[in-house]
Amino acid sequence: MEYFAPKSIAEALSLLERYGGEAKVIAGGTDVMVDIKYKEEPGCLINIKAIGGLAGIKENNGGVRIGPLTTIRDLETSALIRDKLPVLWEAAHQFASLQIRNTATIGGNICRASPSGETLTPLLVLEASGNIAFSDKETAEPFINFFSGPGKTTLGAKGLLTAIDVPYPAAESRGVYLKHAVRGAMDIAMVGVAVLITPDAAKKAVRDVRIGLGAVAPTPIRAAKAEASLRGKPLTPALLKQAAELAASEASPIDDQRSSAEYRRWIVEALTRRGLAQSWKAATGKEAV
Amino acid sequence: MSFTINATINDKKVSASTEASTSLLEFLRDTLEMKGTKLCCNTGECGACTIIFNGKPINSCVTLAADADGATITTIEGLADGANLHAVQQAFIDTGAVQCGYCTPGYIMSVAALLDRTAKPTAEDIEEAVSGNICRCTGYAKIVDAIHLAADRLSGRA
Ligand SMILES: Cc1cc2nc3c(=O)[nH]c(=O)nc-3n(C[C@H](O)[C@H](O)[C@H](O)COP(=O)(O)OP(=O)(O)OC[C@H]3O[C@@H](n4cnc5c(N)ncnc54)[C@H](O)[C@@H]3O)c2cc1C
């Protein structure tokens, strides 16, 4: 196996261009090392940790710019993330163990494109985008268009994620990230649900709502029908229940060793209902009536 | 493809060559023959391979050896001061927190890192610090006792 530790983005991109499908980018390595040990070694490993400026969290016109090498622990211990993007903070906080959080990066979590990737549903409901670079072009891509299947993204074999831009949600909005897993700290989510809700000025009706579902489809998804069923309406218990059922119907979970598809659908419904109720209460100070 | 790693391990400068696919755990155990850090799941789940890397506890099994270049590392071999055990090691012995002992080095590194961060850890801090370490013998209660005892001794409360 060949090994490179490029010092700049340009150098990394030209290596990716040269080695293409043979190459594997490595950041924290918590996914890649397991693949090397248990699946297969790539022809060439490109360690991006020597590239300067790819870690860090900064306020950036109306939002936060996060470097892809920022660790999950750095997100969890960032006062800015906790204060301004609590849905993302919650996902970082519930992510694996301290040892893994100290090593795993947000860029690795995104580029791994696991349907259960902890930070992905928060990024979808926050309508975040990635700065993606190839040797001949660079684009800003909303994450909703970024994932194409388990482990598959628009980066293909030659792209690099160079920044994550997360706009601040409306000041009146509130949200939650709920993870269902067997062994709290260490388990990959069986289902993950991120909710962000914004009430209208009278705190009566739903002005905007976003629901992200993880681990229940080939990619993390937004529950578009459930969201549409709520927008502009007062949040009654009946509406809430119906939206949760719609979200469950939008999921296309699989049976695996962690749980059956049917069970996952039940959990989507329960977590969506709970997430909406909790977020509404946090945003309005009232229960859904 | 092999290359040289220069790191500071347990306060000593170390220079050794390794292969690109080598994990930091393999580098410690097989290249440097430091067998205190344990190989168990090799997937980052059990914590037996925990070391302190640039001040933070990490799983050495899922870290690239190449990342150790320029790093400062503490392993279980680096905690005792000659014949004097580190407070965490002594507390594990005194409370009977060791049974088969295989998970112990990893636990001790997680706890040493915890007590470096916080002199008086809460129950929640303790749970967070060792949630990435698995012990199949003790049932955990004595490990938690050991952590409290070490914290008390280190801060002069016991
Ligand atoms: C014990 C254990 C527990 C875990 N628990 C969780 C959990 O609770 N929740 C969760 O979501 N995940 C979990 N994971 C998975 C993993 O830790 C995360 O996906 C992590 O965020 C990956 O980040 P990394 O930096 O380690 O990535 P790496 O392993 O270095 O890379 C992951 C993938 O991303 C690519 N990549 C990395 N950075 C870039 C970039 N900037 N541009 C292009 N491609 C890039 C790599 O080529 C690779 O395909 C766990 C893993 C382990 C071993």
Brief summary:
Chain A is an alpha+beta fold and 289 residues long.
Task: Describe what this molecule looks like in 3D.
The complex is a heterodimer of chains A (289) and B (158). By secondary structure, chain A is an alpha+beta fold. Chain A folds into two domains: 2-167, Uridine Diphospho-n-acetylenolpyruvylglucosamine Reductase, domain 3 (2-Layer Sandwich), CATH 3.30.465.10; 174-284, Enolase-like, domain 1. Chain A contains eleven helices and 14 strands. Chain A has helices at residues 9-19, 32-38, 72-76, 79-84, 86-93, 98-103, 106-112, 120-125, 224-230, 237-250, 261-284, and strands at 2-4, 23-26, 44-47, 57-60, 63-66, 129-133, 138-142, 147-149, 152-153, 160-167, 174-180, 191-199, 206-214, 221-222. A five-stranded antiparallel β-sheet of chain A has the order 4-5-10-6-7. In chain A, strands 11-12-13-14 form a four-stranded antiparallel β-sheet. The longest helix of chain A is centred in the last third of the chain and has 24 residues, at 261-284. Chain B has 158 residues and is of the alpha+beta class. Chain B has two domains: 2-78, Ubiquitin-like (UB roll), CATH 3.10.20; 87-154, [2Fe-2S]-binding domain (DNA polymerase, domain 1, Orthogonal Bundle), CATH 1.10.150. Chain B has helices at residues 24-31, 87-95, 104-117, 123-130, 141-154; strands at residues 2-9, 12-19, 50-53, 56-59, 72-74. In chain B, strand 3 and strand 4 (56-59) form a beta hairpin. The longest helix of chain B is centred in the C-terminal third of the chain and has 14 residues, at 104-117. The termini of chain B are far apart. The mean pLDDT of chain B is 96. Chain A binds chain B through residues 1-3, 5, 26, 28-30, 33-34, 36-38, 41, 45, 47, 49, 73, 96-100, 102-103, 184-186, and chain B through 1, 3, 19-21, 23, 42-45, 47, 50, 53, 56-59, 61-64, 66-67, 110, 128-129, 131-133. Flavin-adenine dinucleotide sits between chains A (24-32, 34, 48, 68, 95-96, 100, 103-105, 107-109, 111-112, 117-118, 155, 160-161, 186, 188) and B (43-45, 62).
